[in-house]
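It would be a great kindness if you could assist me with a short task in structural biology. I am sending you one protein, given as its amino acid sequence and as whole-number tokens for its backbone shapes. I would ask you to consider whether the tokens describe a fold that such a sequence might reasonably adopt. The full record is reproduced below for your convenience.
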Amino acid sequence: MLRNMNGTESDEPPRLPKVGEYRILQGLLGELVLRPWFDWLALRTVAHGYFPLSRAWAAALASGNSVKRFLEELPGEGLLPDPLAWALAQVDRRRASYDSAAGRWEAVFFGPKDSRPETLVAAELARHRAAHEHMATRYAFLPMIARLPAVKWRVAAPEEVEARHAGRLSAPEAAFPQPEAAAIERSRAVAGAYGPEHWLRFRAPVLGDTAWARVSTPEGAADPPTLIFLHGIAMENDMWRGAADPLTSGAIGGLRVIRPEGPWHGRRRLTGWYGGEPAIGCGPLGMLELFQAWVAEVACLVAWARATSRGPVAVGGVSLGALTSQLVAVAAGHWQADLRPDALFLVATSGAVLDVARGGSLSRAVALQPRIEAAGWTPETLERWLPLLEPTGPPAMGPERVVMLIGESDDLTQHEGGLALARAWGLPEANLFTRQQGHFSVSLGLLRDRAPLERLTEVLGRTV
């Protein structure tokens, strides 16, 4: 007999609970909520709430318990020492708790000794709870939110970008060269709600840090098809408890889902920055280097997926993850066959990344364009880097194997750019899904509208 987490005995092994499905949104409430008005509210919450609180939280983590160091990291008028000291103490305490739980988790899942099922479940629940509480200490800065900036600006000048990346413009295959094979380490598996869950870690081929990914496999599946699904900017679901996840029940449809942790997010956050912030705050250099790093990491995960299942492999993502995935699809045409995805799944994407940076609603909300111009960037200097930012050729797979979901009211990655990409690539009508939704609601809409995912599974079934 096994003992469950509540102390009772059962013949069933302990499992992680279901999270992120938000069944309440799958009915009439979802029909009412997941509309463009929700996107208007979500954008302002992110740009004027979450980002400023995250900015202070990241500064606090870089400052320890020192008010003086915090004010050097984040200068501001009207930030009073006493409330700051309390906020810094909260952040430091929760950080220490998370570090301890994460260390125990890593020892249990990757250490030399096998662990009992209940030990694995307990370690993951403790890590996730500590991670959530660590991330949630942003609340400590709510009283001072009006005085906090949304982004730390370190926009690199065109000359610096030229020095670091000009060589990648020499030939199409030089833009995103095939990475060397990665030694990917797989953790022990823990029983999830729909099947085993485990994690991967490996040395990131470009950044050199540790890249992470969570893998969800359908119960009892042999050689399942795989979807490598990339998240959006500042999305860190493996750190937040209860974050909405439209792919949680993807395992029911027989898909193995790999969720990579993107560069500068989650465990990979840079000191002094919040998750994903360098991609905005460093201007064009930030996006160039994030794309360069993540494309190479996805290639390594495609190779791992093929080595561990004979099923086909799809790459996809939402927002920033979709922008990265479409670069993978084009770059893969220059890679060896086993690194090329069989299908592509794009949610809230655009083929015009420069338009997103210049006129997208999030870019406008954080005043990105004036910062870029102040650093010496012009339309001409930006367009030089299009081959490293936008898909400039056909994908490695045929258009019949590309599935796209875009919102007609999306003003962040801009509906027109996604539609133009679909037309340029010649997507069949059955593979292009448009909804009367905006950037945030169109991806959350997958919780209740499974048609795009069902189409992807059909496409994958035909690639076997």
Q: What stands out?
A: Residues 2-32+46-147 form one domain. The longest helix spans residues 81-110. Residues 246 and 447 are 5 Å apart (CA to CA). The mean pLDDT is 93.
